[in-house]
Design goal:
globular, 216 residues, single chain, mainly beta, four-stranded antiparallel sheet
Length: 216
């Protein structure tokens, strides 16, 4: 069993490898996010110590490398940060979201085919979707998801199950509408769909109501 020592001073809540499996991000109750190079031969080297959160950091999430080296983090301090490596070893915040009134418990980037969108679930019961625009500005769309807190969020695949594998190319399959699933303190799991005609997120169904779950 291989152990990876870290410089964290408190509980580690999440660890995530990047798309290529060569970078490791960790986050902790010590309010920091740390990034390590994962080198061949087992060597680990810390390359970033990201500070800015004012409370325990619950989760980290890497964006698809198509958009550069971007890492998101969420915290008990009600904030979401998006970090970027501008040059090797030089990181900075490119976006801060302070829209929530409770701990932000879970974050997830959407499938790359839908662009650069980050879904965030909070103890205030709301989900926010942060979207980077062509001019590098960010927009935020929020909706009420659960009455007594939202703990988890995840995206549906951009294509139907098996479509990419059976098509001659990914573009041969129809892109599906953006869909999310959330889990809350109300013991409910809900499925949401982005309705373009309303420019809003609408509840599609809950498991057990006849909807077909998505999977790999």
């Amino acid at each position: 069993m291989e152990k990876i020592p870290t410089a964290h001073e408190d509980l580690i809540h999440d660890v995530q490898l990047d798309y290529y499996g060569k970078r490791l991000a960790t986050c902790s109750s010590d309010r920091t996010v740390k990034v390590y190079d994962v080198m061949e031969g087992g060597e680990r080297k810390q390359v970033a110590d990201l500070k800015g959160h004012d409370g325990p950091v619950w989760q980290v999430a890497w964006a698809h490398p198509k958009f550069g080296t971007l890492l998101a983090s969420c915290s008990y301090d009600r904030q979401i940060f998006v970090w970027k490596e501008h040059t090797p070893g030089q990181w900075g915040q490119v976006y801060q979201c302070r829209e929530h009134e409770g701990s932000v418990n879970s974050i997830a980037w959407c499938p790359v085919e839908h662009g650069l969108c980050l879904a965030c679930a909070s103890s205030d019961g709301r989900v926010s979707v942060l979207t980077r625009q062509a001019d590098d500005s960010w927009t935020v769309k929020r909706f009420n998801a659960h009455q007594i807190g939202c703990n988890a969020v995840s995206w549906a695949p951009a294509f139907p199950a098996g479509a990419v594998l059976s098509a001659a190319s990914p573009t041969g399959a129809a892109l599906q509408p953006m869909r999310l699933v959330t889990g809350g303190c109300d013991n409910l799991v809900k499925i949401w769909r982005y309705a373009e005609d309303r420019d809003d997120w609408v509840e599609e169904s809950s498991p057990g109501q006849g909807d077909t779950p998505w999977g790999g």
